[in-house]
Specification:
By secondary structure, chain A is α+β, with helices and mostly antiparallel strands. The first copy, chain A, has helices spanning about 5-15, 65-80, 100-115, 165-175, 180-190, 195-200, 215-225, 245-255, 270-280; strands at about 25, 35, 40-50, 85-95, 120-125, 130-140, 155-160, 205-210, 230, 265, 285-295, 295-300, 305-310, 325.
Chain lengths: ~325, ~325
């Protein structure tokens, strides 16, 4: 299969039109560049993330999971901005041409692209060590993007889902144990919180996805907002598989594990009724885990007047897998 | 240096504001995504290209050249669309943290970014085998993008510059010979034809950059326009270093060599006065090398009633370094 056939194949396999109200991809795959018309009054939101084999996923990873996840991590960033996905561009570097691998990879990506209504609009295929870089483009009404810098003292700190699943699955796989289905799914097929992100427009004062771990990512909000936070670890929701663990055994996974594509956000306490309403809507499990403080620093309280200090530094933690400029 | 410091360093080193009339980067590096406001009436043009060490550049390449070229190949695609560069996103995969390499890489990129008035607005830094993926965003007035599909029988075929320099330099380096400065510069510091691309709006009926070689890329125009072309090889302008070569020695480099970031475009014959005016303006050396034909196929005439057939197939050629979806 030539590189050109390979591109055509990807184009066929990942054939999704963007959702209603997203204006046209005037020129798509097959020219020097894609030409996109944005609807009036909308801002463009752009995120880019790379997955490298051996760094972000093992060489034993299912190709469908790799396809899903390389798109999911980017859509998760769009979710954290409150944006609606519209288009994406993929730079795929492949060590060899393997039609079976490619079809499964594309199928995993296509399923998520269809659910999220995001259209593959261009990219590049090249030979080299396996890696996937996706740049995802989303839209948001001007002035309504959820940023990291808006948290204020007194704001509630909320997390979606139950952090720790993906890190637990990864740890178990490393020990050749069998993870719970729920944990394995969180690791291999993370679901970006797009509907939640959209619902947080006008509600959240700051928002981030916790792909680098709750401690590190909440730390980004604190740093950019010039505030601190007190988190009550007793309130931190826990995946079923970790329910029997002691705090000291599960907190490292839950706070510093990373690879959870949940959202952490803050909102003024007067918005609590709207938050409860949102939780009741079933868009996601939402838990208030603490409060923004005037003092700098991130405090994890264990409830007996003591605090827990993650071994790996909290909001100054940047692990070996790299860090995003966004 | 942590990955975070590395990002900050890149941000400092490649600090360019986009040109006048390009509206704001409302949220830049440091959030989940960049938020960009487009001026009214403009379409977005998006191009993405990857450079992998050992495939697109040797491990002996100067880091400044790698930085320059990874941005240049993307800006060349914007040029071929007639777009004005505005922002770019970089996914940088590095095998190790090497501040000296990074500074030189960033300096090469920053010089070109400053000339082109294009702003680094986000990205990702990760560890792994050295590769650089850039997604460049440009702007063009709605409906004015230069596409590949508009060539019509009778149109003139024009090429900018003198194709063959980069391929000649590459061949000489492989033979441990010393290329001419002009050729080496074309290979290591290609200059995207941005001003020319802008000038071709409303003039060219089709346009492409000839990064995969003149034969292959002109072939794309022909395929997408449903036409053929007759090229007079006696008119093909020749780099000084190839002037003493016989046709059969230089045509392979000039037609199939690739890595030339010149533009090939077509325009109706009635536009010839505008073309001459443009050539006189000095924006680029412009040469009419042939004509679009009704019959399919790409004919290279050598002037004695004979034709030349490139050994490597013309417009079906996709070399090992991969092919763009655009």
């Amino acid at each position: 299969m030539s590189e050109f056939d390979l591109i055509r194949r990807l184009q066929e396999l990942i054939c999704v039109e963007p959702g209603a109200g997203v204006a046209g991809c005037v020129v798509g795959i097959g020219d020097d560049g894609a030409v996109l018309d944005l609807p009036e009054g909308q801002s463009l939101v752009v995120c880019t993330d790379t997955l490298v084999e051996g760094v972000h996923f093992p060489d034993t990873a299912l190709p469908g999971s790799t396809g899903h996840k390389s798109l999911a991590v980017n859509l998760s960033d769009l979710a954290a901005m409150g944006a609606r996905p519209a288009w994406f561009f993929m730079a795929l570097t492949l060590p060899k041409q393997d039609a079976v691998w490619l079809d499964a990879f594309a199928a995993g990506m296509a399923d998520l692209a269809a659910t999220a209504r995001v259209m593959l609009s261009g990219g590049d295929v090249t030979s080299g060590p396996l890696s996937i870089t996706i740049t995802a483009l989303g839209l948001i009404e001007r002035g309504r993007a959820l940023v990291r810098s808006g948290a204020a003292p007194g704001d509630l700190v909320v997390v979606s889902g139950r952090p720790g699943s993906a890190a637990h699955a990864l740890e178990q796989l490393r020990r050749s144990e069998t993870p719970a289905d729920e944990d394995l799914s969180a690791l291999e097929y993370p679901v970006p919180r797009l509907a939640l992100g959209r619902s947080l427009r006008g509600l959240a004062s700051a928002c981030i996805d916790i792909s680098d771990g709750l401690a590190a990512d909440l730390g980004h909000i604190l740093e950019l907002s010039g505030v601190g936070a007190a988190i009550d670890l007793r309130r931190l929701p826990c995946p079923d598989s970790l329910a029997a663990f002691s705090g000291k055994d599960r907190w490292p996974l839950q706070l510093a594990g990373g690879d959870d594509y949940e959202l952490c956000f803050t909102l003024p306490p007067r918005m609590e009724p709207e938050l409860k309403e949102l939780a009741r809507s079933g868009v996601a499990e939402l838990t208030v885990i603490g409060e923004i403080t005037r003092d700098n620093g991130l405090l994890f309280e264990t409830g007996d007047g003591k605090t827990y200090q993650p071994k790996r530094p909290g909001y100054r933690h940047f692990d070996e897998s790299g860090g995003g400029m966004q």
